[in-house]
Write a structure and sequence with these properties.
single chain, alpha/beta, five-stranded mixed β-sheet
Amino acid sequence: TVLVDLTVAIEVGMVMAAFLFMRNMINFTEVSTLTGQGVDEAEDESDPEAIGNYEIPKEIEVFEINGPLFFGAAYKFTDAIKFLEKPPKVLIIRMRNVPIIDATGIHVLKQVHREAKSRGTKIVLSGVSSEQVLEELKNSRLLFAIGKANIAQNLEKALLRSRSILAAKDPLLP
């Protein structure tokens, strides 16, 4: 307010607050790879949905997204996916802690779906509990592209679906 009038100072303050909010949301969002061998130490052992309670076959990769999937945070997910050495036969994307998603998040999920499809990987979404996220997935036709059968209520059902996908691809698997 020393150099310009109060109106400009308020506008600059609002823009700065918006950028700080986005930065905090990006820092709040976490994407991690979960496997049966490398369980995250921060995971609550008393949680019945903890990854350590399940046996993950080697043909299945599980990614968990915690926090809102929008703008800059969506690219954390893209970067995490790029570190896969060998494309899995089934990719479970665990979204039980994703309260909101925006167009950027939908775009990133579509991109991941396209790349997975080209590599022969099936995607299973697990724990999508937010009505807003489900609505956005429907409106973007991503729910249709992934297949409604590949949307599981929890990790246990996602693993059952993944095993049935594996069994359909290779009848010799147990």
